[in-house]
Amino acid sequence: MVGAFAAAILALVGLYYYGPQDYTNVGYAPTQPVAFSHAQHAGQLGLSCLYCHTGVQESSVARIPSTQTCMNCHQAIKADSPKLTLVKASWESGKPVPWVRVHKTPDFVFFNHSAHVTRGVGCVSCHGPVNEMPVIVHTKSLSMGWCLDCHRHPENQLRPVNEVTNFAWRPSEGRTQQDLGLYLKDEYKVHAPEQCVGCHR
């Protein structure tokens, strides 16, 4: 009886620790401290993901932009907007804006952004059409099964490396995603791991 009770407690703790958190649920769209619209910046203005999320080509993480990145433009553009009050306070104090992270893998999963973007996996494949989102929404499950589907058939997601941040990209006329993806899989030497050790280290 005591053993069964202990097993039940351990199972509940395991479910809590390993189970889905808010940040891994499809539809998660936290309120940010500053109302930043990706639809306006990445969509209407056409800013590249790489301008704000630096390091994704060399690093395992996509960095949250520093306040200096925001102020590179906003010292001159809409500098007096009340929407930028917190950003300007951050810039003056040196304390970062407390952005709420939307996409995050669990602690027991290793994910490397550079391994994906340098082999032609577009931002849209994992993050959805952020160029259309006034508020960032977690649109893909990022579950193990979802990741393995891509690892088993990466040709369905591959595009030329210089198009990874282009949300409007489509294969050129006369080519299918499958055809181009298989070519790029060979060209970029894509061997996506399917074994546990590939992502659980």
Rg from Cα = 20 Å
Q: What does the largest sheet look like? A: none
Cα shape: globular
Q: In percent, how much strand structure appears in the residues?
A: under 5%
Order of helices and strands: HHHHHHHHH
Number of DSSP helices?
9
Structural class call reads mainly alpha
Residue share in helices? 25-40%
Multimerization state: single chain
Head-to-tail CA distance between termini? 36 Å
Low-confidence stretches: none
Please tag this protein with its features.
9 helices; globular; 201 residues
Topology:
Elements: H1 2-18, H2 38-44, H3 49-52, H4 67-74, H5 85-93, H6 113-117, H7 123-127, H8 144-152, H9 177-187
Account of the protein in words:
The chain has nine helices and no strands. It has 201 residues and is mostly helical. The protein has a domain at 101-201. The radius of gyration is 20 Å and the shape is globular.
